[in-house]
Each structure stands twice: as structure tokens, then as C-alpha cells.
Amino acid sequence: MLKYIISFIQRKWGIQKEVYTPNFKKAFEHFCIHAGGRAIIEGVEKLLKLGKEDGEASRTTLYRYGNISSSSLWYELQYLEAKARMKKGDRVWQIGFGSGFKANSAVWKCISEINSKDPNAWSDRIHLYPVCGDASSATLRTKLLS
């Protein structure tokens, strides 16, 4: 926090160009970002200095289910489980946004081994994700549903 405060003050005085951002990957293995839209996911990735792979569960949930409000966080968590990415001891940071200035987050720690074969919302088509390429969402969704 001290590094952030110092860099914030230095930025105001023109000494430094940008405010210090901690490396959140040291604290969390996985991120579930509110799937309210592509711009939201990309914006959070940019501000927290995350890679595209960190937002994969969010983008895939947005692609498959659309903007389903804060419940998207649970679909993202199930995506990580279905892809066998959750391991015992892993920490997940869920970041949710509401209307106006509402925001919330939760941190979860995996306390047991996850069986990726357990049925969940992704079980029927997990092998089709992530979807790659620049084709339109409607075209890709049609291909997946057929």
C-alpha cells in the first residue's frame, strides 16, 4: 500500500507517469471478472495488469451465456473447475460490478481436489472452449450449437 501511495503522490507532482499496480498474480492463481461486457473484462485486465489467459473464463462465460449479471462469477468458477485448472490450495479472486458505483469482490481458496468430470453448467461442451479466432460471436455460437 505504501508503494501505491508514494507512486500516486509522485504522479500528481509529475515525477512518475503511472501509479504503482501490485502483481496480483502473486496473490491469486485465478481471476473471475464480472462478464458484463468485453470492455469491462479488458479494462479490468489492463488495470490489474493481467494476461488474456487470466480473463479466459470471463470471456468464455460472456460468449456462451451473455451478460448474466453477477451470477456470471459462478459460471466462471465452474469453467475453471471443468477445465481442471483448480487445484487444492489455489486462490480465486471474484470481482463483480453492479449498476452505478456498486462493486464487490470475494476471495476463495480451494480446500480439496476438484474432479473436473463432475457435472456442471459446462459439462456438455467444455471441450469446445476456449473459442479462438476473430469470427463473430453469432457465427461461432451457431457452429457450437449445431
From TrEMBL:
One of its GO terms (cellular component) is membrane. PANTHER family: 3-KETOACYL-COA SYNTHASE. Pfam families: Chal_sti_synt_C. GO terms for biological process: fatty acid biosynthetic process. One of its GO terms (molecular function) is acyltransferase activity, transferring groups other than amino-acyl groups. This is Chalcone/stilbene synthase C-terminal domain-containing protein. InterPro entries: 3-ktacl-CoA_syn (IPR012392), Chalcone/stilbene_synt_C (IPR012328), Thiolase-like (IPR016039). Residues 31-105 form the Chalcone/stilbene synthase C-terminal domain. It comes from Thlaspi arvense.
